[in-house]
UniProtKB/TrEMBL annotation, chains A, B:
Organism, as annotated: Chitinophaga silvisoli
Keyword Mitochondrion: no
Keyword annotations: DNA-binding, Transcription, Transcription regulation
Domain of life: Bacteria
Protein name: Transcriptional regulator
PANTHER family per record: TRANSCRIPTIONAL REGULATOR (PTHR33204:SF29), TRANSCRIPTIONAL REGULATOR, MARR FAMILY (PTHR33204)
Region forming the signal peptide: none
The HTH hxlR-type domain, residue ranges: 12-110
DNA sequence: GATCCATAGGATAAATTTATCCCTATACCA
DNA sequence: TGGTATAGGGATAAATTTATCCTATGGATC
């Protein structure tokens, strides 16, 4: 297994939160689970830009960090459902704040972000579904 | 210059916000500037884990994304001051939410984050200063 | 004259994260 | 038999981000 070589910075709340959300799809996954999209295959369909592999890895990390719980059904084909833990739910206001700020400033952000000369291409293929939040 | 090879995902607010905050020190820098720590040298002292180089790069990106403004004083030695733009200020509630959630769950998070077998070492050397928010 | 201050940024190495590809297992369906 | 669905995860390549090191500026200070 890969072993980190640089000390992880966990000084302030900001860095701790950043570490938990550190992963391309983690906020989107938490958001999806909060909206009752609980099976990996559903998440994969919801986030076409992601691969099964990455989602699996990031779900595992979220689970290891205590944000989500995994329930495996002894069935075939396999069935797995994830749900937010209590602390996972407590993180949702942060996710919501990020989501809302980004949406509220969408046109501006799309412009400045895409203006970056390093960026050649952008995609809007993911996170297309917005639903009501499942009752926690 | 480095050119991105993978399309940037900018579908939902979540990803847009993530892109703006994408950088090890960006949330901490925004937080610092909001607390009237406006000169790069001050930020460097505040964040001992960071190098001058990285802070410079990330400040430049924040500026390019319109979150901060740079004022250069024609002096020697050079003097530069950063300040939050209007949209930068509007992002502070998100930063605050991250900061507060992380602080509120500090002991739990320090445990689970450090439990990761990939992690060999952690550091708490940065973000040590908390002050009152400068009036926006 | 050497050194430090404060800032900017080039060049390159190293670290870390993502992407790709592949294989496992089993029930069901045509 | 062959393909589909569902989930897990190894191995490795590629992409991206950070870290290191170095050069430049001009005045002040030792």
């Amino acid at each position: 297994m890969y072993e980190r070589k640089t000390p992880l910075t966990i000084d302030c709340g900001l860095h701790l939160t950043k570490e938990v959300l550190n992963g391309k799809w983690k906020p989107a996954l938490l958001n999806a689970i909060s909206m009752d999209i609980k099976r990996p295959s559903e998440m994969l369909r919801l986030l076409p830009g992601a691969t099964r592999r990455v989602l699996g890895v990031q779900l595992k990390e979220l689970e290891a960090h205590g944000m989500i719980e995994k329930k495996t059904y002894p069935q075939l084909p396999p069935k797995v459902e994830y749900s937010l833990t209590e602390i996972g739910w407590s993180l949702m206001p942060v996710i919501d704040a990020m989501n809302q700020w980004g949406d509220a400033n969408r046109s501006f952000l799309e412009t400045v972000v895409a203006q970056d000369p390093r960026i050649v291409e952008t995609t809007k293929s993911a996170c297309l579904i917005y639903r009501n939040r499942k009752a926690g």
